[in-house]
Design a protein that fits this description.
With 115 residues, this protein is an alpha+beta fold. Helices cover 43% and strands 16% of the residues. Helix 1 packs across helix 2.
Length: 115
């Protein structure tokens, strides 16, 4: 375990799973987003039990324990933050055999109606 109290450790693991899943689906669908994820296990400068999402010009630190009873809301909050932090007009749809995430594909099409 990470040295965190059990409740915070489990919330941290859940938050990492939610955030990393969203970013992986984004990367499988759209190229050029430059969205990165790290967490307090990798970056000791972050608060314990936290996950950080960053883009070129912004970052969001999520304290996992604050979302422990609201995982369904975290998904929407992270997606909304990415939509605000990343200009999808400067990106391209990912080519290849990977199945694109329908949610990200729809938002890319909304940002690039001429494509």
């Amino acid at each position: 375990m990470s040295g965190l109290p059990e409740e915070i450790h489990h919330a941290h693991m859940q938050a990492m799973s939610v955030v990393e899943g969203i970013v992986i689906r984004l990367r499988l669908t759209i190229s050029g987003t430059r969205v990165e994820v790290t967490n307090s296990n990798r970056d000791r400068a972050l608060p314990p039990g936290s996950v950080m999402i960053s883009s070129r010009h912004a970052e969001l630190v999520i304290l996992a324990i604050e979302w422990a009873d609201r995982w369904d809301e975290l998904d929407g909050a992270v997606r909304s933050w990415i939509l605000e932090a990343v200009d999808l007009r400067s990106t391209k749809p990912r080519s290849g055999r990977h199945r694109r995430d329908p949610w990200w594909a729809a938002h890319w099409r909304d940002a690039n109606p001429w494509a």
